Amino acid sequence: MDKERVKKIFDIVKTVLVWVFVAVSVFMMVFTIFSVNTFDRDDRSVFGYKFYIVTSDSMKATDFAAGDLIIVKEVDPTTLNEGDIITFISQNEDSFNETITHKIRSLTTTDAGDPAFITYGTTTGENDKVPVEYPFIRGQYKTSLAGVGNFFDFLRSPAGYVCCILLPFVLLIGSQLINFIKTFREYRQEQQADKDAEINAERQRMEQELAELRAQLAEKNGTPVATPLDTPPANISPTDAPPAGE
After folding, report:
1. Percent of the chain residues past pLDDT 90, beyond the cut
2. Is 91 in a helix, a strand, or coil?
3. How many CB atoms lie within 10 A of CB 70?
4. Which of 19-28, 69-78, 120-129 has the lowest mean pLDDT?
5. Dihedral of the alpha carbons of 156, 158, 160, 163, in degrees to the nearest 10
6. How far apart are CA 136 and CA 115, in angstroms?
7. What is the average per-residue pLDDT within 133-145?
8. Is the Cβ–Cβ distance between 137 and 87 less than 8 Å?
9. Residue 103 DSSP symbol
10. Long-range pairs for 118-127 at CB < 8 Å and ≥24 separation?
11. Where are the domains of the chain?
12. Is 81 left (phi over 0), alpha (psi -120 to 50) or beta?
């Protein structure tokens, strides 16, 4: 395999790696922006879906654990049934106003006669102290993404920002700067080579014109044009030349 082919393969691999690096960096940036604006936001949804980071292991026995990302779909509470998993805003004194995702055990009514659900965490199996009324339901659990919540929390930390966002872009900019400097040097070298070629061509042209002019002058004066063979060696003086006829 010749050097030119090896260089082409190396350039292709380098280009692919750079574009993969760019794609990953852009994805990380988009994911960060998306997650900051949608995760754990009751007022934000994407096509009716909401995203929450699980903060406890109350459902670890059956469905998801702390650090997972769950996807919840907005739903009409009247369509929910026993066994469905719902996300709601807790009215319990111990966890007031926290977002909780538990399983429905049964339908009940409040003291005021409003419909509500009795919910529980599958890890302990104990019922929540306060039934969940319809206005506090945020949606029905659909699926989970293991560990994505932990990854998002890492992204939001200074170390995650540096490792996953800042450092990739610094490396990308640095590699592009190196490529720019390399390309600029090659361009300058090509320019210098072209300039040297032009100078050499001009010198040859001038020498050719000068030789032609000397030939014309010599022909006009009847003097033979000196050639390298007509010039005696530098270490032999005219007096040392052999006599004529020898």
Report:
1. 38
2. coil
3. 23
4. 19-28
5. 150
6. 12
7. 95
8. yes
9. E
10. 119/86, 119/88, 121/56, 121/58, 121/59, 122/58, 122/59, 122/60, 122/61, 122/62, 122/63, 123/57, 123/58, 123/59, 123/60, 123/61, 124/58
11. 39-151, 175-221
12. beta
Q: What is the pLDDT of residue 169?
A: 77
**Dist CA 111 CA 109 (whole Å):** 7
Residue type, 8: K
Q: Are 225 and 215 in contact (CB under 8 A)?
A: yes
**Which homologous superfamily is 39-151 in?**
Umud Fragment, subunit A (2.10.109.10)
**pLDDT, tens digit (0-9, with 9 covering 90-100), for 178-231:** 888 988 888 888 888 888 888 998 889 898 888 888 888 888 777 665 555 455
Strand order in the sheet with 99-109: 49-53, 69-73, 137-145, 85-89, 99-109, 115-120, 132-133
- Say if CB 103 and CB 83 are below 8 A apart: yes
pTM exceeds 0.85 for this model: no
Residue 178 backbone dihedrals phi, psi, to 5 degrees: -60, -45
Instruction: Please state whether 213 falls in left (phi above 0), alpha (psi between -120 and 50) or beta.
Output: alpha
**Average pLDDT over the chain, rounded to an integer:** 84
CA neighbours within 13 Å on the CB side: how many for 169? 10
Provide the token pair at 76.
């009409």
Report d(CA 160, CA 158) in Å as an integer.
Answer: 5
Instruction: Quickly state the pLDDT bin for 82 (edges 50, 70, 90).
Output: very high
Between the alpha carbon of residue 191 and those of residues 1, 117, 179, 182, 187, the distances in Å are: 31, 80, 18, 14, 6
